[in-house]
Amino acid sequence: DGGFSNGFVPGSDPGATADAVLAIASAGQDAAQWTTGGNAPLDALRVAVESGAVTGAGGFAKVALAVQAAGQDVRSFGGVDLPAAILADRKDGGGLFGGGPYDTALAMQALLASGQALPEGVIDSLLATRLPDGAYAFNGDLTPGTGDSNTTAVVVLALIAAGETVAAAPSLEYYPSAQNEDGGWT
Questions:
Q1: What residues have CB less than 8 Å from 150, skipping those under 6 apart?
Q2: Of 129, 120, 167, the residue nearest 148 (C-alpha)
Q3: Dihedral sign computed on CA atoms, order 136, 15, 107, 167
Q4: How does pLDDT run across 99-136, given as a tens digit for each residue?
Q5: pTM value?
């Protein structure tokens, strides 16, 4: 189908396929040229969106970022206005998107990349989920020690994209404390 597996289950995964399209575009290549069986990764993403396999702010945001990177129209991809679908998954009370900080950070990046203004209060809501050590937990859990390097990285990228470099700084300070002996992160 032109997509990529996440390595955990057989078949193509929309999130992994979106990540691959971002990598391909970042390398300056055209994802439309990466075909197998006559299908390219964007074909797999289009089918996933059309079939309802992509859901929630985080899922739509990943696809929107890939579609944007590939130079396609995020307002009409697989019959869906991706920024509108992201905005539709904002939590009641105007807080976070989807399942928490991770989805919110992806949503912020996708909305900004598509030229959509961020909803009022989303940055403050995201900052309210930062742990004392500067990290963010995937689901917004505020229990000390629940933060992770992946979520924190996605949040830092979103804050920087939103022009909030000062607000991102405490999260960068988290990384030295969480770095493994081999130089990487868990």
A1: 102, 138
A2: 129
A3: positive
A4: 899 999 999 999 999 999 999 999 999 999 999 999 99
A5: 0.93
- Supply 92's token pair: 């009641």
Rounded CA separation 143/139 (Å): 11
CA distances from 96 to 15, 37, 107, 177, 179 (A): 20, 39, 9, 27, 28
184, two tokens: 């990487």
What is the per-residue pLDDT for 9?
A: 87
Q: Cα–Cα distance between 103 and 97 in angstroms, integer?
A: 6
The DSSP result for the chain, as a single string, is ------SSSSS--HHHHHHHHHHHHHTT--GGG--BTTB-HHHHHHHHHHHT---HHHHHHHHHHHHHHTT--TTSBTTB-HHHHHHTTBPTTT--BTTSHHHHHHHHHHHHHTTPPPPTTHHHHHHTT--TTS-B-TT---STT--BHHHHHHHHHHHHHTT-HHHHHHHHTHHHHHB-TTS-B-
- Cα radius of gyration rounded to whole Å, the chain: 17
